[in-house]
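task queued by scheduler; priority normal; single chain, no ligands, no partner chains; default sampling; output format set to structure tokens
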Amino acid sequence: MLIFSALGAYVAMPFFSLIEFYDPKGWPYTYDFFLFLPIYLIGHWSSTWNQYEKIVEESPEKLAER
């Protein structure tokens, strides 16, 4: 989680700024770090949510048995 936020804020964002894809307009990269934390947590939470277990349990082999 912290690695994702740190790499995104202090490596990826300066790179995108360097290639002129991103213009921070005075926005410190530390702010990006704290924005990437909830983005990671929400993505992690949504991918490990129990609703996805139902999809895994209904594999094609099990569907063929029905």
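post-processing summary
- The two ends are 41 Å apart (CA to CA).
- The chain has one domain: 2-65.
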